[in-house]
Amino acid sequence: MxxxxxxxxxxxxxxxxxLYAVCPELKSFTRLNPSGRYTIDFADPRAVKLLNxxxxxxxxxxxxxxxxxNYLCPPIPGRADYIHALxxxxxxxxxxxxxxxxxxxxxxxxxxxxxxxxxxQAEYGWSFxxxxxxxxxxxxxxxxxDRNQLSAEIRLRHQPHPHAIFEHVVQPTDQFxxxxxxxxxxxxxxxxxxxxxxxWKGLGQKNTQRNFGGQSNELWCDGGEVAFISRMxxxxxxxxxxxxxxxxxxxxxxxxxxxxxxxxxxxxxHVHVIEMAQGQKKSRLIAWQF
Length: 290
Prior knowledge:
Strand order of the largest sheet: 5-4-3-6-7-9-8
Mean pLDDT: 88
Strand content: 15-25%
CATH class: Alpha Beta
CATH topology: Rossmann fold
Radius of gyration: 19 Å
Helix content: 25-40%
Low-confidence stretches: 188-200
Number of helices: 9
CATH superfamily: Vaccinia Virus protein VP39
Number of domains: 1
Oligomer: single chain
Order of helices and strands: HEEHHEHEHEEHHHEHEE
């Protein structure tokens, strides 16, 4: 049963005939599952990448999308849920969901895939500034932006310091309605690989590669997600006049008490934890305001 956000376009099953129409190459990667429905081999990075391309073309009007080999290939339905949850968050203070380019969003770690700006711009017309420490990722994201003629709506900034979140990329005149982030969840490459192996073992399959890809800075950092988000919380104090709502995805529910305590220490005035679920997978985001 789908538990996606009510506005999520992916609450039903994939319409492969419609996806084939915009991406014929996808057809060679689909097969019938035991229940007689078409699906793809989600263990195959090529299939996952083509599925993303087809979804972006058919549902969001993205005419070009590509990422380098071994870069993070995000699951679009879950990413869309984050965008819709943030839209609801803004609606609480505006009375209705604010739309249009005047709503500026800061994407911390935009990545080569540029997925959040593409979805947020398509769904709500928001404008984005995406930041990243990886120049190759930014170059790929810029190609996606240029090929889709979105240079006025999505801009990119290089973060030169790997431990800085907002410094160097938030300019003195910047005003953002919110910031979002998909943080590196693991504390090492080994932990990321172990998690990947556990996932496929649970599905009764053996897979030594990550179907979703990912560079080191996309997947892990010293201390894992709790360290990264804690650093974001600490640094957010200095940018409370530039960003109305700060937010981040949180993979492990167990770290929420630690994050809440830190938010108390920095005197955040409002804190929201928004639960999200896609089938059996559960995730959440934490948002705070000063």
